[in-house]
């Protein structure tokens, strides 16, 4: 199928959302695409994870309808890979479709990063309602404004740190730590909060100190005399930031 998005007249609540349908069954892809276009959505389609990844390199999608059982990379594996990718692929909402009905299979899909799960066969109206619900939830979250400190700009919406326009390599833990500090907008953040910032992945307060030291080596000219990432003895840490006017440069 062509990747060119199409649209049929539909209800105003669709608001031009662009949906990617990923299913190895051509008949299901066609039926879903026609139905969703009639609902007022833009629709593109892909036969497998590889083709879907190629579509996503060229276009940003508001939601992915993803089959679990596909030849090659499974839908669950593809969803997990997306959640480890850069933005905007990382945050794309995912509705999984599958013929599997066991609880363990549903949990697997949700753990992989799916936002919702619908078992085949399904009523098209239920599919439409679930899609509308996911899109409403996604649109409620306003992207956090990028914050500057010195030559650095951090974009919370995509967990990306730039220095003079060039990306700075961060580990997953460092990104989470920096995001937590930025979200407090210069206020003091306790070591305890930073240690427990990821539910189910609590770390020791000592490990937070180690992470802070590593992060300082990446953002401070002299980590022993930090200009931006300060220690507030007996309380925690704070990052001195300033908001970007106009959302910052396009990168």
UniProtKB/TrEMBL annotation:
The keyword Heme does not apply. Residues 144-241 bind DNA. Keywords: DNA-binding, Phosphoprotein, Transcription, Transcription regulation, Two-component regulatory system. It comes from the Bacteria. It holds the Pfam family Trans_reg_C. SUPFAM superfamilies: C-terminal effector domain of the bipartite response regulators, CheY-like. The modification 4-aspartylphosphate is found at residue 67. CDD domains: REC_OmpR, trans_reg_C. Residues 144-241 form the OmpR/PhoB-type domain. Residues 18-135 form the Response regulatory domain. PANTHER family: DNA-BINDING DUAL TRANSCRIPTIONAL REGULATOR OMPR, REGULATOR OF RPOS. This is Response regulator transcription factor. It comes from Methylocystis borbori.
